[in-house]
Amino acid sequence: MRLKSSINYAINELDIQILNPLTGIKQFSVDIKLNTYFRSRILDLKAQCDDDEKLLIDFIYETACRVGEALKFKAENKMETL
Residues near 66 by Cβ (< 8 Å), separated by ≥ 6? Predict the structure, then answer.
């Protein structure tokens, strides 16, 4: 519960008079075997891709972006707004 702990830390350090909205929410366990299987499939997929496709896969994996959203994304347009 990293997020819950982070919010508690902020509440305590900043002396904020609120209750943590994540209080009472239970963390669900992630099956490590499934996670390992998924990562191995991603590595297998990336082994068959060129550099641009690898970047796309990394972007989707790291940001949890939908494939359609990632395909519409244009880095040139986003960098101009920064």
Answer: 60
Which of the 8 DSSP states describes residue 21? Answer: T
Domain segments of the chain: what residues?
1-28, 31-82
Per-residue pLDDT reduced to its tens digit, 13-48: 998 898 888 888 887 776 666 667 788 888 899 999
Q: What is the pTM of this model?
A: 0.47
CB atoms within 10 A of CB 46: 14
57-73 burial: b if 16+ Cβ within 10 Å, else e: beebeeeeeeeeeeeee
